[in-house]
Design goal:
Order of helices and strands: HHHHHHH
Mean pLDDT: 77
Helix content: 55-70%
Number of domains: 2
Radius of gyration: 19 Å
Number of helices: 7
Low-confidence stretches: 127-140
Bound molecules: zinc ion
Largest sheet: none
Oligomer: single chain
Shape: elongated
Number of strands: 0
Length: about 140
């Protein structure tokens, strides 16, 4: 029997944690939910300087973190409710969002034929707000 070269997430005390892909994704997710950077690191059991160090060597992560912070800030400020929107856009996977998303999908499946033109009043206005304001937010910050 051959074993796949699996990386062991050794999370011993005082041991430097590998800030690998799933870890980075988890971190970004927490930030996107409005968690402060230090708290998100603590939550994952990593040093709070680790993500910061990563942004210096990983432009992609740096950009993703920037975006996640904007979303997180919005979540904190506006208290985006837990629902399907939050599940889809903010990738919230809490029980309430997951249920709302599942219910939404079931609903759509039940009413099989999609309306040809407008989708009667189901669109949350905040969806457009977030989609538009995030890039301009970033542009304004960049100057
Ligand atoms: Zn949620």
């Amino acid at each position: 029997m051959t074993q796949p070269p699996s990386r062991q997430p050794s999370r011993g005390r005082g041991q430097p944690t590998v800030f690998d892909e799933p870890m980075r994704a988890a971190y970004l997710e927490l930030v996107r939910h409005g968690m402060h950077l230090g708290d998100a690191a603590t939550q994952l059991g990593i040093n709070r300087v680790t993500p910061r160090r990563q942004t210096r060597i990983d432009r992609e992560f740096a950009a993703a973190l920037k975006e996640a912070r904007v979303v997180g800030q919005k979540v904190r400020q506006e208290g985006v409710p837990h629902d399907e929107y939050r599940y889809n856009i903010l990738k919230c996977r809490c029980l309430r969002c997951t249920r709302a998303a599942a219910a939404g999908r079931a609903n759509r499946r039940a009413t099989e034929d999609p309306p040809p033109g407008e989708d009667g009043g189901q669109v949350h206005p905040i969806r457009a707000v977030v989609a538009e304001s995030v890039p301009s937010f970033l542009l304004a910050r960049a100057s």
